[in-house]
Structure formats: C-alpha cells, structure tokens
Amino acid sequence: MNDVNPELLSLRQSIDNVDAAIIHMLAERFKFTQHVGRLKAANGLPSSDPAREQVQIERLRELAVESNLDPEFAEKFLNFIVAEVIHHHERIRNGDDEIVADPSDDAEDA
Predict the structure, then answer these.
(1) What is the pLDDT of residues 89-99, one digit of tens each?
(2) Cα torsion angle, 32, 34, 67, 4, sign
(3) Which GO terms describe its molecular function (predicted)?
(4) Start-to-end Cα distance in the chain
C-alpha cells in the first residue's frame, strides 16, 4: 500500500497540473472570443453562428476520436463553451464589455 500512495499522489498532482492548464487555455480562448464579440457587435453580426458552431463540433468530435476521448463528451463540452461565448457576445452587444480582458492587454507581458 505504501507504494501506491506516492504513485497516487503523483497522479493527482499531474491531474491538478492539467486542470490548471485547461483553465488557462479556456481563459485565453475567452479573450479571443470576446474580441470576436466586439467585432460582431461593431459590424451588426449576430452573436451566434450556427454554421461555424457545426464545423467546430465536427472538428472537435474528430479530434476526440483521434485522442481516444468520447466524442459525445467533446461535443457537450464545446456546446457548454459556445453557450457561454454567445452569452458574452450578447452582453457585449448590450454594452457590458468588461467580461474578460482584451487579448491585446497581454501584449505588454510578452
């Protein structure tokens, strides 16, 4: 049992690291989608783009299969993200532009 505990702790630390990376990547993604939302609002485009969303679903389902991940899970995950993005775009359109930072805000840090 003593041999299992260090391995278990190591695996959990790896999971924690991946979770942190996922959060950082989602934050980065939302910076870009907020910029997209601003462009859509400025150009009178709708918050939702069903054709783009369908292409993304198909692409992520394929990536999921290639990565030995359940494509249904990948689709649900993307749908959850897209729903939040659309919500952000609607808020931007309504004048609430302080959802997440602009990607150009990080340019000074680079």
Answers:
(1) 999 999 876 65
(2) positive
(3) chorismate mutase activity
(4) 46
CB contact burial 70-80 (16+ within 10 A = b; e otherwise): ebeebbeebee
Question: Which domain range does residue 98 map to?
Answer: 4-109
Q: Around Cβ 89, how many Cβ atoms within 10 Å?
A: 24
CATH code of the domain containing 61: 1.20.59.10
Q: What angle do CA 37, 39, 42 make, to 5 degrees?
A: 110
Residue 66 Cα to chain centre, angstroms = 19
Q: How many domains does the chain have?
A: 1
Q: Can you list the residues of the chain whose pLDDT is less than 50?
A: 103, 107-110
Question: CB of 57 within 8 A of CB of 51?
Answer: no
- What's the whole-model pTM score? 0.77
